[in-house]
Structure of Stage 0 sporulation protein A homolog:
Amino acid sequence: MNKTLILVVEDDRPIRNLIVTTLKTHDYKYLAAENGSSAILEASSHNPDIVLLDLGLPDMEGVEVIKKIRTWSNMPIIVISARSEDTDKIEALDAGADDYITKPFSVEELLARIRVTQRRLAVMQSGEQIESSVFENGGLKIDYTAGCTYLKGEELHLTPIEYKLLCLLSRNVGKVLTHTYITQQIWGRCSDNDVASLRVFMATLRKKLEPEKNGVQYIQTHIGIGYRMLRIEK
């Protein structure tokens, strides 16, 4: 059986059963909770590797569950919600969620998001910290100590802002970062002008990282929300 323990927090029984059955079929260990209070108790008692969390719980908002868990743990939290508005996604991600899936969802999408999160966990648990001197992802290599970036062995010439953005994304590979989070990390503030500037810098960075039209995609845009660096399989 897969050693990854997943906590499913969902008050809708048919959806909860679907998720649990999917996990069971693919040999994941799992726990289930029907409300926020139970979710917090299960998370604190069993320390699951991943939490799958609905936002519309009967006793409290899912965002509150995220905030409470974040007071003691960085365990990955994937939100699964029928709320599709950008404001809901941004609120959950800014509260500390790692990813967001909108209902209705396919089983294949759910499993793919879990696999991405597992890869992030593997990096963290192996002690191969992103803060190590060199980061590699597909053909991309970042030497943090030297402040140099390489793509397929060729050095990339990045502006200081582009380099800071790339480092921020690489240190959170696989995780969606909101516009607010990125601009606060890069400029120490978030305004409409900062978000507009961010889009310009991200566009120029992507042209350098992804020069081929149908080549490898390193950065995924979540329209109206933010960006994510994708983990590239070798």
In short: The chain has two domains: 5-125, 134-229. The domain at 5-125 is CATH 3.40.50.2300 (Rossmann fold). DSSP finds eight helices and twelve strands in the chain. Residues 22 and 108 are 10 Å apart (CA to CA).
